[in-house]
Amino acid sequence: MKTIIKTLVVITLLQITACNNKKDQTTAKHNHEKHWSYAGETAPIHWADIEKNSDCDGNHQSPINIIHKQADAVHGISDLKIHYSPTTYIEKVENNGHSVQFNFEAGDSIHYKNDIYYLKQIHFHEPSEHKINGVMYPIEIHLVHVNKTGQITVLGILGEEGDESQLFEFLESFLPLKNGETKNIHQQLDLKDLFKHSNEYYTYGGSLTTPPCTENVNWVVFKHPIILSVEEVLKLKNNMPVNNYRNEQALNNRIVNYNY
To answer: What is the model's pLDDT at position 62?
Structure first.
């Protein structure tokens, strides 16, 4: 009888251990599969926890709230030269689950801080990620440029609602896009309408605003917003996650320059 009891105890313990191991494996798998998003347990405030090998908990993060009167004014000296051509081609557009992104073929570039950065893609955040004097705009466009060594400069352009924009009408002609869907385009696009007020802008050193939140990114945020219609804002919004913006990050003694 004692032998039978001992055997039953051993079997029970083995079953409990097996269940716990399975539970632990399921939990570990669940944690491993967590992917950043803009809501719930994987929202921006949790990025540093779920993206372990990222810079998301760094001290030079983006976006920031730009306070105009606290920026260092730089008059008549511009480190930025925009070399955009009306014959540059959009390669494709994709809904990557976080934003609508247009990828570009080689062509457009900027000259910034004695280096050349090539336009790779543009994408959108709704509402804006950067603020100016605490004001959050309905939308923000990020034009991502990369130089030959992999360094990044992003032009940030804010948008406010008003008249219809021919540029946005063209871009949105390729929408809607389902999550994960891609459309090939290979059409020319002139982006000059984005830079009607390109002589006034803020610059600072920050990061990507999505994981891995890589730091040492050059940011150029234009002071004056572009104009697009309410309908155009809503069409972009309907093709992206709700509130696909990262919360404001601490400035941490960084210097913001105002170029005019």
So the answer is: 98
Six token digits for residue 44: 């921006």
Options 3.30.565.10, 3.20.20.60, 3.10.200.10, 3.40.50.10260; which CATH number does 49-259 get? 3.10.200.10
Q: What is the pLDDT of residues 179-207, one digit of tens each?
A: 999 999 999 999 988 998 899 999 999 99
Residue-wise pLDDT for 78-98, tens only, equals 889 999 999 999 999 999 999
Supply the pTM of this predicted model. Answer: 0.86
pLDDT number for residue 157: 98
| Cα distances (angstroms) measured from residue 248 to each of 30, 115, 207 | 29, 29, 12
Q: How confident is the model at residue 26 (pLDDT cuts 50, 70, 90)?
A: very low
List the domain boundaries for the chain: 49-259
DSSP the chain: -HHHHHHHHHHHHHHHHHHHHHHHHHHHHHHHH----SSGGGSGGGHHHH-TTSSTT-SS-S--EE-GGGSEEE-S---EEEE--TTPEEEEEEE-SS-EEEEE-S--EEEETTEEEEEEEEEEESS-SSEETTEEPSEEEEEEEE-TTS-EEEEEEEEEESS--HHHHHHGGG----TT-EEEEEEE---GGGGTTTTSEEEEEEE-SSTT--EEEEEEEESSPEEE-HHHHHHHHTTS-TT--PPP---TT---EEE-
Mean per-residue pLDDT of the chain: 89
The catalytic residues are: 98
